[in-house]
Structure formats: C-alpha cells, structure tokens
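Assess this:
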Amino acid sequence: MERGIDPDLQSLMTRLADGDRSAFHPAFAVLWPILRRFTSRHLTPPEAEDAAQEALVKIFRQAARFDPTRSATAWVLGVAGFEIRTVRRKRQRRREAPEMERAVLTRPDPAPSPEDAVVLRDLEDALREALGGLSPEDVETLRLYAHGQRPPTSPGTFRKRVQRALARARVKWRITDERP
C-alpha cells in the first residue's frame, strides 16, 4: 500500500482502471480536495478551481490507462500539474492580446499619405490610358472579368478572351509605362 496523501487513492484508482464504476464517487471524494489544494498553491482561486475540475475530468476519462503498479498520487498530481501549466500558458497568451490590441489602436492613420495618393493616381491614369488603347470588346471582357461576371458564352471561350485581352493590355501598359 502506498503511503502519502490518501492510502485509499491507490486502491480506488486500481478499481477504476479495472472498470469498477462503483469507485467513481469514493474516488471523487478523495481526489477533489487533493486537486483543489494542489492547484490553489500555483494558481489564483478561480483558475485553481477550473484547473482542478479539468484535471478531475481527465483523470476519470483516462482511468483505464492507469497502471496499478505505479503511484496513484504521482499520476494524479502529474495530470494536475499539466493542467496548471496549461492555465499559465493561456494566461500568458491573454496578456499578449491586449498589447497587440493597443498596438493596433495606436497605429498611424490608415489613410494613404499624400505621396501614396499621388502615386496611386498616376497608376490609375496610366491604367486608364493603357485600357483606352484597347478595343471596346477587350475593355468589356476585362470589366466583366474584374466583376466576376461572364457573358453568355462557354467558359472556355470567355477564359480565352480574358487571356488575350490581358496580353494586349500588358503590351499597352509597357508602352504607356516606358514614356517619360
């Protein structure tokens, strides 16, 4: 028999491992105070309560895996220790989240700077000029493609029209872009 926290724990865990369902209530009565005391030494009271409950659920769920030749106390406290680490990791992640939110709130104005606005306007003008050199059919095909629509033709035909219109637009763009 194991000396330690509760001598009945070893026999109760062995009974649970063997599938004896009548050992659940007595095991709960022995485990709950042990788990609450252990987790409360390492966590805040609400976190300790949650960690103890989660450890208890995992112990009962995995009771069939318990090896009766090993210490029940060590096994139970190992599961509780893992839950304590899990709670601490979650706490660390929650502390990082507000810092990330503050960084988003203190970010500069998302509106484009005056320089970015000028560059964007120049690009749009160049694109209009390049598209202006295309046939009306190519412009209409690219407009439909940009809006996710397609004319009443087969998908293959429309795909080929888009491919050709884009190739012609690239040529016009290069000519437009090379001008001083």
In short: Residues 96-101 have pLDDT under 50 and may be disordered. The chain has seven helices and no strands. The radius of gyration is 34 Å. The CA atoms of residues 36 and 49 lie 6 Å apart.
